[in-house]
Amino acid sequence: MTTPYAIAIAGASGRMGRMLIEAVLGAEDCTLSAALDRPDSPALGQDAAAFLGRTSGVTIGADVETALRASRFLIDFTRPQGTLVHLQACVRHGVAMVIGTTGFDDAQKAAIEAAAQHIPIVLAPNMSVGVNVTLKLLELAAQALRDGYDIEIVEAHHRHKVDAPSGTALKMGEVIAAAQGRRLQDCAVYERVGHTGERPAGAIGFATVRGGDVVGDHTVMFLGSGERIEITHKSSSRATYAQGSLRAVRFLATRRAGLYDMFDVLGLR
Ligand SMILES: NC(=O)C1=CN([C@@H]2O[C@H](COP(=O)(O)OP(=O)(O)OC[C@H]3O[C@@H](n4cnc5c(N)ncnc54)[C@H](OP(=O)(O)O)[C@@H]3O)[C@@H](O)[C@H]2O)C=CC1
Ligand SMILES: O=C(O)C1=N[C@H](C(=O)O)C[C@H](O)C1
């Protein structure tokens, strides 16, 4: 019998943390080795599966060093500041990381790249198979609709989301720009208000909707003269992100240090 993947979950009482704990407990090849939350979290001291009405034997704690000593992988869906702290600890302990957190700035992305020289890391703003297949469809559409089509990306998420545009929307913009031989930072338009003037040719526009319990919707519009193409992905459950994260863990188990994404995990590159 092979040793199960020993996985620590950061942000254990968050929306994704709970989904991940349920997924790990339900996977025959995985064990929950630790569950982390912030030092001031009311969840500290509780069993990590209490929210399921179950007992896992793992208590939610705030001591990252102790958590990582028992773990081979850390799955992190928290906030950029938290992820960066966990990242340095993972390097110290030689623990592989799956990072789902979004909203990193350039310096934080560079820190993740540097850490990936020492440990294997999967970093992706969206772990679902469907979204990553959608990204491939966007590559094709962006190449074929290079001339004469205006591109707009609209995303909608629940009222608790703190970053905008979503990491997925930004990734869609990057994929589209790259497929057209451009850089997103040279053509992105994130805000329109007041007298905006006409739409600049070649812009990639973003619009954000926040409200209710929307899990995550993304639509990319290619708006031409006489027609428009819309490519939409809608998430109806966070379980897809959790299952994608476990696929990333299994992938990392076979890899040396390096920075990977879900295209690598799913063989879509
Ligand atoms: N890649 C993907 O497929 C997906 C990515 N995401 C991303 O994952 C992240 C988390 O989303 P979600 O679960 O909805 O968020 P939640 O706010 O529900 O959960 C975040 C968790 O992280 C904890 N946390 C916050 N700040 C820190 C910190 N500085 N150090 C350690 N822990 C911290 C929170 O603790 P506390 O409550 O005490 O603040 C909470 O337990 C977001 O960036 C989101 O965009 C979400 C879904 C899918
Ligand atoms: O915060 C969320 O909920 C989500 N965040 C990710 C993002 O920013 O793209 C992925 C998904 O859309 C859900």
Descriptive account of the structure:
The chain is α/β, with parallel strands linked by helices and 269 residues long. The protein has two domains: 5-123, Rossmann fold (3-Layer(aba) Sandwich), CATH 3.40.50; 129-235, 2-Layer Sandwich (Dihydrodipicolinate Reductase, domain 2), CATH 3.30.360.10. 35% of the residues lie in helices and 23% in strands. It has nine helices and twelve strands. It has helices spanning 15-26, 64-69, 80-93, 106-115, 129-144, 167-179, 184-187, 239-252, 262-266, and strands spanning 5-10, 30-36, 60-61, 73-76, 96-99, 120-123, 150-157, 188-189, 204-210, 216-223, 228-235, 258-260. The protein has a seven-stranded parallel sheet, with helices on both faces. It has a five-stranded mixed sheet with strand order 8-9-7-10-11. The structure holds NADPH dihydro-nicotinamide-adenine-dinucleotide phosphate and the ligand O=C(O)C1=N[C@H](C(=O)O)C[C@H](O)C1. Residues 11, 13-17, 37-38, 41, 77-79, 81-82, 100-103, 124-127, 167, 241 line the site of NADPH dihydro-nicotinamide-adenine-dinucleotide phosphate.
